[in-house]
Amino acid sequence: MGVLMLYLGLLTFLVGIPLFIVFLALRIKKWSWISGFSLVLGFIVFISGVFSVWTKSISLVDSADYLNPSNLTEIEKILVATKAQEVTEIEQLVEHNRDLRENIEENTSTLETLWNKVNDAEEELLTLRGEMKKAEDEPIGLGAGVDYRAGQDLPANSYQVVPNEGAKSRVIVKAYSGNVKVDIVIEAEGDVPSFVLELESMDTIEVDASVNLIPLQTE
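Now predict its structure.
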């Protein structure tokens, strides 16, 4: 049972390390916790297995020391030699475990550094999103005689369309199929000083005098 716990714990521990690093790097918090728990559990099972096998082997070896070798059968001699070999292997495993603990400390330091970099990247991303949001809220100026396509030349969005001061402009919006969706004339001092336009992806908009598109909502 002790040997089974030893190898099972070692396998769980060795498999858990790369999984923990991968999930942490991908910022999948749920699986990072699960793999981290498996890592700790595997380490505990491994140590328990080592302790169990070590205790049992030492007990058997101590008992064998009191036996008179001349009275041992061939099978008993083989068993004693096998247990002595197991003790040697366990000593090697203990040494290996010491190396693993050193590697864990190094990996922990690496993970802390990685986690700090992730936090810095998240803060930078939030800053960039804020700058993008601010840019999206600013009016978009359209010049005369150019077909602008939503999703390529400007974002698909809801806009308030207003002419430049003192200007008068005809605004034509067509769907991707070519059907005219909007054909309207706006004038700052006229009957239609502005209007609200729902510009969908792949729509085209053309004006015969410069106008400003003021975003009403952002995607």
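The chain is about 55% helix and 20% strand.
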